[in-house]
Amino acid sequence: MGVILALVGALAFSFMNVFMRNGVRPGDEDNGLLTTLLVNIAVIAAVLVVTTTLGGVRELSVVGGAWFVAAGLSATFFGRNALFGAIRHIGAARGAAIKNATPLVTVAIALAFLGERLSAMAAAGVGLIIAGLFLLIMESLRGARKPRTAEEDPVDEAIESEALAAAGWWDRTRLMADRTVAAIAEPARRQIVVGVTLGAAAALAFGSGHAFRKVGMDFMPDALLGASIGALTALATYLLTAAVRGRARAELHRSVTSYRPWFWAAGAAGAIGQMSFFSALAFAPVSHVSVVAGSEIVLTVVIAALLARRLEAITSRVVIPAILVFAGTALIGVAG
């Protein structure tokens, strides 16, 4: 049951990633975070009311609740915000692959603060993840040509214009194409760098959030209540930051009234993923759940290839790094 629930969670999060990619509109400031949070809370609250009505009063813990608040702030707010930004810049498959390097964060925390040692199997897993991330970043940067600098090409603009005027039609076309590539290369490279950076930030935030949730479950082993606290914390933080900018009412109205079916579907998928992941921990060891949940990377690649073919180029240069990251995650999970 634990493995099945973890697989359902991985599948749900994969659909959330692809739905977010399909929901992004060019030039749109809305990254979908508020919409998905509202849908998350609606779905989780409905399940919480039903289970509380059928099962009776739930036990509360102040300390456990505090850890779930920290998890909501780290993973649900910062992590999801960074992940959605990465998906916007570099796509669902690449963003999810970088974000799912969270075991590196977990290992780093264990080594730095818990005094644990890195086993040979875990070290091999870390190596595979790093190799996969390196290949993926190189693939993302592939084709983003660096524009010419004054040192590399000291030709004066006026001289270059004269050369264009004197050149034949073929040379003129080639030179104009080179100038166009140079003009668009820097924005493309900048977009990729921003996407990769946001993906790494998401991995850091989600890795910390998982650690906070684990401690919270020790004090208050109620997955559904923990997910509710985390989602409410993220929503409150979002609205607070929007209020500081004087945009809370406008953004809330936009998210509630605008027709964004992809964002709504992403929110529902995210809620299912959260509840499934937390519930899986009650039936299986966290190491087993982590291994199965790591399949989100491969599942996202497959689903993106099926549902987002016009938006993402899924090639072997993406598939192979994704498999390496998944394999590294699995090794670290098996190593415990």
Provide a compact summary of the structure.
This protein has 336 residues and is mostly helical. It has helices at residues 2-23, 33-55, 62-90, 92-99, 102-113, 120-141, 157-166, 169-219, 223-244, 248-257, 261-280, 286-293, 296-307, 316-335. Helix 4 (92-99) packs across helix 8.
Using only C-alpha atoms, the radius of gyration works out to: 23 Å
User: Termini distance?
Assistant: 20 Å
* Number of E strands: 0
Estimated structural class: mainly alpha
Total count of helical runs of at least 4 residues: 14
From the spread of the alpha carbons, the general shape counts as globular
Tell me roughly what share of residues is in helical segments.
Answer: over 70%
List unreliable stretches of 5+ residues. 143-160, 180-185
Q: What composes the largest sheet? A: none
Hey, roughly how much beta strand do the residues contain?
A: under 5%
Provide mean pLDDT, rounded.
Answer: 77
H/E series: HHHHHHHHHHHHHH
Write the layout of secondary structure elements.
Blueprint: H1 2-23, H2 33-55, H3 62-90, H4 92-99, H5 102-113, H6 120-141, H7 157-166, H8 169-219, H9 223-244, H10 248-257, H11 261-280, H12 286-293, H13 296-307, H14 316-335
Helix pairs in contact: 1-11, 1-12, 1-13, 2-9, 2-11, 3-4, 3-8, 3-9, 4-8, 4-13, 4-14, 5-8, 6-14, 7-8, 9-10, 12-14, 13-14
Describe this structure in words.
By secondary structure, this protein is mainly α. Helix content is 80%, strand content 0%. The protein has 14 helices and no strands. The protein is globular and about 50 Å long.
Which terms would index this structure?
336 residues; 80% helix
